[in-house]
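Deviations from the work plan: none for this task. Representative record:
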Amino acid sequence: AQKITQTQPGMFVQEKEAVTLDCTYDTSDQSYGLFWYKQPSSGEMIFLLYQGSYDEQNATEGRYSLNFQKARKSANLVISASQLGDSAMYFCAMRERKRNTPLVFGKGTRLSVIA
Amino acid sequence: GAVVSQHPSRVICKSGTSVKIECRSLDFQATTMFWYRQFPKQSLMLMATSNEGSKATYEQGVEKDKFLINHASLTLSTLTVTSAHPEDSSFYICSARDRLAGLQETQYFGPGTRLLVL
């Protein structure tokens, strides 16, 4: 069975600094996808990044990048130049290759950006 | 990106009543929709997988008779919380994938429904 582990319940970062949110996963499948979502206090789930298990390059999008280390089964999210608006819950999730399998989420990390 | 709507956004009801939550994919067809429940300061827990035209698949520990799911079309799934009790108060989020989506495509999430049972 697939499992996602986020060991940091809460993180603080100074505005304009970079921060890394940890995510490790466990699966017996060779083909899978890893996702990061941001959930502000409004509750909406905002898709940030996708990393495929066979992707050779780390996913990036603007200030968000994913540090994918397949051998360690880790997919950490790096946010550069933090902004106050980055304060939110961040969830790492995984889906196995089989069609129509759901996303399985980690427990999340609450990020607080300090001015 | 694709849009998933959810209605209502908030509902307050008395204990013992039933509440229906609608989830619609607005610009794509979703063979499969997923229902999650999220308690305060916790993660999203999958309740069930809803397949168009067939019975939903429920996760272990989720009562089928209490959480009725209907997926009557490729764009609509409904979750009915029957005989709601205060412990059912939670944030319910639906999610859908485009039926043509590849592995790399995300699930699209509705904005969620906050249910408060008094």
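Chain A touches chain B at residues 31-33, 35, 42-45, 47, 50, 52, 91, 95, 97, 100, 102-108, 110 (CB under 8 Å).
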